[in-house]
Design brief:
The protein has 260 residues and is mainly beta. Helix content is 12%, strand content 38%.
Length: 260
């Protein structure tokens, strides 16, 4: 089994960044999901509320977030040293983040055509291994499991398939094991390259998987197919969560080993 791709999402709900290699930190992959877009009430803005988030392409390097969107000038946003405290409601979590500043808010408002703000959450908020609004620091998916889903979609006669792995917004993708092998890893440990991880629960999928992560077009798949074939205890499962057991670096083509 080996690692075939690595992805981060510097701004939650926005476009992904693909990596050849990356540093693993106690709270997840370096630069992953430390920023989020919130509305005037501090509620995190999600793709089902505004699918246009997929058109915002963030990059994070050397303490600076760069935001890009077609038809708009790039904007560079430094990590706020002591920004305005901003109460953020993300799912069932409520935290105090830092406001990125009026320039970022104005840029996002123009791109999304609605009043929003950009919030930065320090990695230390996630040091316990549980990022705000998510169950675990990393999400792993299996290429063979995606192939099984796409076979089911084809068998159903749906015109929406095949769907790409990007619909599931994983952090790490593996190949070389049968479909749903990852189900058996839950509660155990794996190693990617030299970095060990604990394997958490399966990921219960939501309507985000029906949104094309490049065009923002929305359909019914793969959620409809998961509801027929992967409804386990009222959860539509695809992928498993990981928790780093140690820091280190992982890279595409690293071996992936089940430890226990």
């Amino acid at each position: 089994m080996r690692l075939t791709s690595i992805h981060t999402y510097p701004v939650k709900a926005c476009h992904r960044v693909d990596h050849d290699r990356i540093q693993v930190e106690p709270w997840g992959l370096s630069g992953d999901r430390h920023w989020m877009v919130v509305d005037a009430n501090g509620l995190r803005v999600t793709q089902p509320q505004h699918a246009g988030l997929v058109h915002i392409e963030p990059r994070f390097s050397d303490g600076v977030l760069t935001l890009r969107a077609a038809g708009h000038p790039d904007l560079q946003v430094p990590v706020p040293d002591a920004g305005e405290p901003l109460k953020v409601i993300a799912g069932r979590s409520v935290v105090v983040a830092s406001a990125a500043g009026p320039a970022a808010d104005a840029w996002l408002a123009r791109v999304l055509d609605r009043p929003v703000r950009l919030a930065y959450l320090k990695p230390t908020h996630r040091a316990s291994g549980t990022p705000v609004g998510d169950s675990y620091p990393l999400l792993l998916t299996n290429e063979a499991s995606l192939a099984a889903v796409n076979d089911w979609i084809a068998e159903s006669g749906s015109a929406e398939g095949p769907v790409p792995m990007t619909r599931f917004r994983p952090n790490v993708v593996v190949t070389g094991v049968p479909p749903w092998a990852e189900d058996d890893w839950r509660g155990g440990r794996i190693r990617i390259g030299s970095v060990p991880f604990r394997v958490g629960k399966g990921c219960d999928r939501c309507v985000v998987t029906t949104i094309d992560q490049d065009t923002a077009e929305q359909g019914h798949e793969p959620l409809r197919t998961l509801a027929r074939h992967r409804n386990i205890n009222q959860e539509l499962l695809f992928g498993v969560y990981l928790i780093p057991d140690a820091p280190g670096e992982i890279a595409v083509d690293d071996p992936v080993t089940v430890l226990d």
